[in-house]
Amino acid sequence: MDRIFVIGNGGSGKTWLTEKLSAGLHIPSTHLDDLHWLPNFEAERLREERDRLVDEAAHGAAWIMEGIYGSVFRQVSARVTTLIWLDLSVDECLSNLMHRGQTGGGTVEQFDDLLAYTRAYHDRQNLNSYAGHLRLFDEFGLEKFRFSGRSDCASFLAGVKAAQMQ
Q1: Phi, psi angles (nearest 5°) of residue 125
Q2: Burial of 106 (0-12, 13-18, 19+ CB in 10 A)
Q3: Is residue 104's pLDDT more than 80?
Q4: 31 is in which domain, residue-wise?
Q5: Residues 109-138: pLDDT tens digits?
Q6: Which strands, in side-by-side order, build the sheet including 63-66?
Q7: At what angle do helices 90-100 and 108-119 cross, to 10 degrees?
Q8: Which residues contact 105 (CB under 8 A, 6 or more apart)?
Q9: pTM, whole model, 2 decimals?
């Protein structure tokens, strides 16, 4: 596991898992919202700029990227060695978001938009949806994991830690 991509719905725990993996494996992580959005979620970056930033982040020998963005996974998939899909229920994702609150300086309206976007995970039909993530997961031919809850993630992290100690 040296180039890891973590996908999942909003509030599924992608950032949490990525931070734990990054610290445990001592490899850098990239939060794709930071590349997709301008500071404070002011607006989306131009696609060309975002794609350039993603390419730069994926250039290293070891990294972890996390986000909902299936199109970014497609952009870097040739370099990904491990795919992790956090496939939590929409209710659990919404609960996590409500507990966490808005991050990165966004507004109340933006947070409400995030909640609505998260609710629609199974309804959307693009690469950022349940169907899109399922397709990406099914098509990926290397090491992959699909977790349906925090306990799955905790068990996985314990295994990673144990492997690092050997």
Answers
A1: -130, 65
A2: middle
A3: no
A4: 3-165
A5: 989 999 999 999 999 999 999 999 999 999
A6: 29-31, 63-66, 3-8, 82-86, 143-147
A7: 170
A8: 39, 40, 41
A9: 0.93
b/e map 75-96, b = 16+ CB within 10 Å: ebbebbebbbbbbbebebbbeb
Q: What is the DSSP code (8-state) at residue 5?
A: E
Which CATH number do you get for residue 138? 3.40.50.300
How distant, in Å, are the alpha carbons of 66, 110, 157 from that of 35?
11, 17, 26
Encode pLDDT of 14-61 as tens digits.
Answer: 999 999 999 999 999 999 988 898 887 788 899 999 999 999 999 999
| SS3 label, residue 10 | coil
Residues 48 and 53: their CA atoms lie apart, in Å, by: 9
Segment (H or E) for 145: strand 143-147
Query: In sequence order, which ranges of the chain are alpha helices (DSSP H)?
Result: 14-25, 32-36, 47-57, 70-76, 90-100, 108-119, 130-139, 150-165
HSE-up of residue 69 (Cα within 13 Å, Cβ side): 23
Count the domains in the chain.
1
